[in-house]
Each structure stands twice: as C-alpha cells, then as structure tokens.
Amino acid sequence: MIDFHSHFLPGIDDGADSVSVSLAMLDAWRVQGISTIAATPHFYATRNDPVRFLSDRADAYEQLKCVFDNTVYPDVRTWPDIRLGAEVHFFDGISRYDGLHELCLEGTDLLLLEMPFRTWTSRMVDEVGLISASTGIKPVAAHIERYLDQPRSLVKAFLDLDICFQSNAEFFLSGATSRKALKMLKRGTITFLGSDAHNMDGRPVNLGPAVEVIKRSLGRSFVEDLTRRQYETINDYVSVAI
Ligand SMILES: [Fe+2]
Question: Is the pLDDT of residue 72 over 60?
Fold first, then answer.
C-alpha cells in the first residue's frame, strides 16, 4: 500500500517540525505495514519560489538521509520507500505552468493537486482538465472527500475528468463518512489513499487503521488489488522527461 499524501519532511511546511518527529512518523508507517510513502510538502505558486522549494525539499530529505546513513535505528532497512513529491495548490494558469514536472511524484508524471476550498467555478474545473493535454501530467486530486459539497454540477464534472483521485484515511475512519468512502473506493473512483499526516498527535499517520476498515468491509483481496492498481498507475506514468 502506498501513502500518497504526507507532510513528514522536517521543517519544510506545516508538517513535521523536527527530524525526530519525522523519524517517529516513519516508524509509525513501518509498524502499519505501509510500503511506500509520497513526501508531499505544500507548494503554493503565490508563496513558493519553485527553485527554492526544490532546494528546501532536498535539504529536508538530506537531513533524514543523514540519519538513515548513520543510524543507530536497527530497523532502518525495513522502513518504507520514500518518494519525493509535492501537494500543489491549484492556481490560475496551472495548466500552462512550466515547473509542474519538477513537482510531480519523483520519477513520474503524477501530480498531487489540492483544489481550493472556496466555491469552485467551471473555469477552475476546466483548467484541471487541461493539465494533461498541455503538459502530459496526470493530476491526482488530493482528499477528494473535502470537495463533495461543492456545487453538484461541478463535482460531477470534476469526477468525470480523466484524472486520479486520492482520499484521506480519515474518510474511512469517521463513522459519518465511512460508508460513502467505501462506496467510492469500490466503484473505482478513488485510486490512491493518504494519511495526510502532519505530525504524531493532531494529524497522525493513520493509513494502517483505514486499510483495516477496508479489509473488514471489502476483503483482503480487494486491498491487494487496490495496491496492485496503485503501483500499476505509478508505472503507467513513469516520467519520460529527460
Ligand atoms: Fe496535505
């Protein structure tokens, strides 16, 4: 299982604020049996200079790697694989933005895209649809469950786009939304799951418990198929950019 959405790199956004928190989060993923984690710090085109963002992300990752390389932690080799990425907040002109490939999940053309929480317009939905055509990048809409109360026609148009959808573990863990989450997963609307973990307390690593809910409701083989589909999607979008 891949955790496609997380904020555990130290000191780069509102996620982990130290290497020790990052390590504790990584250990939580290991214990929960999550094999791959996308490190997706927030990227806001209005606030972040892309060159600086990539440099800060590399520095944050290097801090963790230093611990890996000099570690006293015995289980380091069993820790999940880490893939660098970003959670890119939608902005006007994103479909024509030159720097999107560098923000995709490392080695792929998959882009974790966060939509605005304000009321959408049809122009915004249309622009997301243009991203693939103009850049070859496949958007993965982050925590789709947060947008289901947008205007009905726009939600339908958004779900009809040829993009992927990610939902947070919380969607499956909350009694109020679990049925809806399982229905969307079973229907194939949701491809990727994520903890959207920021720390060890308020917004913790919780994908493992969500996977258990899915296993209990839809069966172990469903989870195995979903995991296979996730890795196939990543392989289908291996970047051809030089
Ligand atoms: Fe996030």
Answer: no
